[in-house]
Amino acid sequence: MTVTVTQTVDETGRRMGEIVVEDNGPGVPLEQQPDLFKRFFRGDGHGVEGGAGLGLAIVHDIMVLHNGSVHYEDAPAPEGGARFIVRMPLKTV
Length: 93
Description:
The protein is mainly β. 12% of the residues lie in helices and 32% in strands. It has a single domain (2-89), classed as 2-Layer Sandwich (Heat Shock Protein 90), CATH 3.30.565.10. The protein has one helix at residues 55-65, and strands at 2-9, 15-22, 69-74, 82-89. The longest helix is centred in the middle third of the chain and has 11 residues, at 55-65. One of its GO terms (cellular component) is plasma membrane. It catalyses: ATP + protein L-histidine = ADP + protein N-phospho-L-histidine.
């Protein structure tokens, strides 16, 4: 797993913090991707470990409250995997 933290500028010129979490596992099947951020959603590959399917829904709701965003995309080839990108506005202090 790789976690990258950077600062970017969005299309309006606003400074944004960006956190990218990426792995090289199997990724998320296309048919499950629209449900990733819904409460209580657990994909087919959730394994035997527990979990209520709330984590990504909570991240999504917190980002929306702070004028940010979170989305999923497939990690680039050749390794592939999952990539989650969290973006939030930065304030100057």
